[in-house]
Amino acid sequence: xxxxxxxxxxxxxxxxxxxxxxxxxxxxxxxxxxxxxxxxxxxxxxxxxxxxxxxxxxxxxxxxxxxxxxxxxxxxxxxxxxxxxxxxxxxxxxxxx
Length: 97
What we know:
Helices cover about 55% and strands about 0% of the residues. It has 6 helices and no strands. It starts with a helix and ends in a 7-residue tail after the last helix.
């Protein structure tokens, strides 16, 4: 098992010390990671510094980083729409999903 895979697995298992590495594996800036976790960038920075993040947020970053915890989904990729597309659809300006 690769080091990255081990970090993803540990993060999904709730190891809060993996937060910074999970952020890097998910290729998210601090602002984007905070947005994904539905917190302010200040809260996310505090989580990284005091090592007391919300365990659900850690699991989410593990999934965003590529961990697939569900059997049978190995090899699948996550496809994300740009935020501008999502906000346009929410306002009724884009095609429906």
